[in-house]
Amino acid sequence: MKKLSGILLVLLFLVSCQKSENLTIKGKYPYGAGKTVQLEMLNISQRQFIDSVKVASNGNFKFNFNLNSPELLILKNNSGQVINLMAFPGDEIEISIPDSMFTSTYTLKGSEESEKIRGLVSAVEKTRLQLDSISNALELLEDQEGPEAEVLVSAYQQIYIKQKRNNIRFVVENLNSLASVYALYQRISPDIYVFNAVRDLQYFKIVSDSIKVKYPSSTLTASLLDDVSKKMTEYNNMMTLNTLSKTNVVETGLIELKIEDVNGNPVSLRSLAGKVVLINFWASWDQGSRDAARALRPIYTKYHPQGFEIYSIALDKNRNVWRAAIDFEEYPWINVSELSYPYSYAATVYNVTSLPTSFLIDREGTIVAKNISGKTLATWLDNLL
Fold this sequence. Notes:
CATH topology of the largest domain: Glutaredoxin
Number of helices: 11
Distance between the termini: 103 Å
CATH superfamily of the largest domain: Glutaredoxin
Number of strands: 17
Radius of gyration: 27 Å
Structural class: alpha+beta
Order of helices and strands: HEEEEEEEEHHHEEHHEEEHHEHEHEEH
CATH class of the largest domain: Alpha Beta
Largest sheet: 5 strands, mixed
Strand order of the largest sheet: 15-14-13-16-17
């Protein structure tokens, strides 16, 4: 009898363990009746398909499967709209989606972490709308460098800073939460992350150090640790290059750069020796620097035949986005990019802290002016060429 009791206890324990790994997601989505909703698991670098179900005629749908560790899941409708869910083994999550506004009007029960992520998504969406409104207002201005434009640019910067501070506060207050990982990788636009500065690496490090202890088996944890390791390697390499280049700055006054163009061909700054060169730092995601570069076209057309060249360095990460911006703006000069944003050797060694930033170099390779444009630049070129 004692032996049988022992077996029953073991069986009860196993059943209990299986139950704790079961995840249930129930939903009510009347607008999606007859359509398919899909569930995916997301980590830093990829999505993994889990399952898809058809929404019943009464709007009900249900997912039920085993989950071994906390994971970030995405519920997606057939239009590609998504709801982010931070799910734990044993959770019973209920979602009600009352209308076609799949991502914004839903209500959720049974997942506190998912509610945290929803708050993050809502805040960034509001910021995105505000920034888009300012960008549209800027495009309508005739004078892109006047007082009104400066006010708009300042407002844009303040809104972005406010959003970043909110994310920093969330990360610091939720170091033991997997939702903090989501906060680290939020974007203002497809190519602009909220955490986009080199110094932001500290937040990635403290979050990874915290959650690897609490959630060691989560694939989200594993992917974060891998990404942080890569970022640390990039940062250390950049610091090494920066240290090595300091001697070169003292000796020559001009740091040699050899960066690939849109076709993957390296273009050396030294190859332009004997010309007057404008090194121009910009980015496809920064409208101000795109506008400033556009204003260079008439100057380039006039002075290029006389020996003037522009070596334009984009602080970008995505080759296709960068190429599309060049094609759209029709920049006719030398366009290069390390495609390593926010880590850039060129920007570091030339101490670039804002965009746009430019340096004018004479025929002898000496930097003679910084951040000049329009008539001032034309006057310099009249004297140098």
